[in-house]
Specification:
Structural class: mainly alpha
Order of helices and strands: HHHHHHHHH
Number of strands: 0
Length: about 200
């Protein structure tokens, strides 16, 4: 996708009725499920466990094994929080994962300094949009290239090398890949939106 094209987030499949295709675990939770859900949710959160997490813990052993990487990327990474949320928002929007984009647009994007205009632009505008400063545009371009080709152009890689060290570049690639994986789970299971989460801008 070049800078003159709109991102065109993927729309729900025709006939989708709100799913989900895999039933999330439901309360009352057994002790092991409760332990896993508590680990996946932010500390001290008063929200009900997210539907996505309740689908992941259908496979309890796998959910327990992937949590350290997921938490490491989201809570213990070395990328600036704003950069992390730009990449997540663009990656999930390009994949059409309104569920995950909307959760981050309410809970994590604003905490990292993203206002509504930028969050909306990340879901709707091309990389060359005036809504993005130069650094944000670089991250949007990187997310778009990874979405479209699963690699980065030489020029984008060079620009990223000027902004990040090698460890941060590994983190950036894994972050984009992890949220593309979550987007695949969300879309494939036809996961309903959280009632409090944001919707894609019209």
């Amino acid at each position: 996708m070049n800078a003159s094209q709109d991102p065109e987030p993927r729309k729900p499949l025709p006939g989708a009725t709100g799913g989900p295709r895999i039933s999330p675990v439901a309360p009352p939770y057994d002790d092991e499920t409760q332990r896993l859900l508590t680990k996946w949710m932010p500390p001290g959160s008063e929200l009900e466990p997210l539907l996505l997490f309740r689908v992941l813990v259908v496979h309890r052993r796998l959910a327990g094994r992937i949590h350290p990487m997921a938490s490491g990327l989201l809570n213990h990474g070395t990328l600036p929080a704003r950069d992390r949320e730009v990449l997540i928002s663009r990656t999930t929007a390009r994949a059409g994962a309104e569920y995950e984009w909307g959760v981050h647009a309410v809970l994590l994007g604003p905490q990292a300094g993203l206002d509504c205009d930028v969050l909306d632009a990340l879901a709707t505008q091309p990389a060359g949009s005036a809504a993005f400063d130069a650094h944000t545009r670089l991250l949007v371009t990187a997310a778009d290239e990874l979405h479209d080709r699963a690699t980065l152009s030489a020029s984008t890689w060079q620009d990223l090398q000027e902004a990040y060290d090698d460890a941060q570049l590994v983190e950036l690639l894994l972050l984009a890949g992890w949220y593309r994986t979550l987007s695949t789970v969300i879309n494939s299971t036809d996961l309903p939106l959280e009632p409090w989460a944001a919707r894609f801008p019209a």
